[in-house]
Structures are given as C-alpha cells and as structure tokens.
Amino acid sequence: MAATFLPFSSSQFIIFSILSLSSLLLITGDDHGFARTLDMKTLGLKEEKLSHFRIFWHDILTGTSPSAIQVVPPVANSSTAFGLMRMIDNPLTQGPELSSKLIGRAQGFYASASQQDIGLLMAMNFAFLEGKYNGSTITVLGRNTVFSQVREMPVIGGTGAFRFARGYVQVRTNKFDQNSGDATVEYDCYVLHY
C-alpha cells in the first residue's frame, strides 16, 4: 500500500479540521458572536405609531445673533452659490412668528450642492425642548430645492422618544427676505416611531 503524503502532521490536520468546522458553523449559525436577534420588548419598544408635527424653522443670517453662519464660501462665478456651506442652530417655533413658543432647535448644516439650480443638501437634527419630546431628536437628511413650492426630505432616524424613527418632512417657505436672506420655513413632519 502506498504512503499518503499530507503537507502537515496528523495533529495539525485535526486542529485545521476543528477550526474549519467551527468557521463553517459561525457562517451558517444564528449566533455570530457580534450580532443577535432581539425581541423589541427588551428595548422597551411598544407599538409603532405615526406622529405629525407642524413646526416653523427660522434661518436668521442677519443681526447681532445669527442662527446660521457661513463656514465655506461658494465658488467664484457660480449662479447657484455652489459650494456654499452654512452651520445652523435655528429656532423651531410653534407658529410662523419668531416670537411664538420655542419648541426646539434645528442643528446641523446646509450646503449648496447643485450647479444647475438652487439645491441644498440639508443635514440636521431637530432637537426638541418641550413636553414629552424634550431631549429627543429627529434627523433630516436630503435635498431641498428651495424655490419649489413644496419639497420633501426623509427623516432617517432619531433619539429618545424617536429611536428607530423614519418618515419624511414636507417643506414650504413661509417667508423669505431676498435682501437679508432670512427665511421662515414650515416643516410638516410625519414620523413613524415607537
């Protein structure tokens, strides 16, 4: 009988076989060590609900305490202010007047991301300061074509009462001052959350 040649000893072969088998079990099994399926109740999540918020976003570029400041200027000779970026900490109020009840802050940035039209990339958290949503946030990330009558952007998440949030916002300009750039914008927020 001819001898069989193995590139490793029998003990190495056994170790190799055990490691290969355990790797196969990790790939095909449910317990990956770093991930597992959870029951939503263990996180305190109850039935999912749909909430609607109507809030007013105030972008204030002028005065002694602006809520939006330019951090990157636009490129030269751009008709759309392409490249411009502003950091924001905008008041969110219950009504269209800045003097109406403050219910939160819109914190994040927007940037002019289109060379063909005025199209902003908006990335912001609505940090609520009032009622049962005090301390909770929703995150909005999307494209805002500011001169369209109605715009829509996705809600991509949240914190606190809005963990696992998803939804969308419909945006309408309420007031815009072409001289100062100050604007009041109505946000209708439709948010699925637990």
UniProtKB/TrEMBL annotation:
<keyword id="KW-0052">Apoplast</keyword>
<dbReference type="InterPro" id="IPR044859">
    <property type="entry name" value="Allene_oxi_cyc_Dirigent"/>
</dbReference>
<keyword id="KW-0964">Secreted</keyword>
<protein>
    <recommendedName>
        <fullName>Dirigent protein</fullName>
    </recommendedName>
</protein>
<comment type="function">
    <text>Dirigent proteins impart stereoselectivity on the phenoxy radical-coupling reaction, yielding optically active lignans from two molecules of coniferyl alcohol in the biosynthesis of lignans, flavonolignans, and alkaloids and thus plays a central role in plant secondary metabolism.</text>
</comment>
<comment type="similarity">
    <text>Belongs to the plant dirigent protein family.</text>
</comment>
<keyword id="KW-0732">Signal</keyword>
<comment type="subunit">
    <text>Homodimer.</text>
</comment>
<dbReference type="Pfam" id="PF03018">
    <property type="entry name" value="Dirigent"/>
</dbReference>
<dbReference type="InterPro" id="IPR004265">
    <property type="entry name" value="Dirigent"/>
</dbReference>
<feature type="signal peptide">
    <location>
        <begin position="1"/>
        <end position="29"/>
    </location>
</feature>
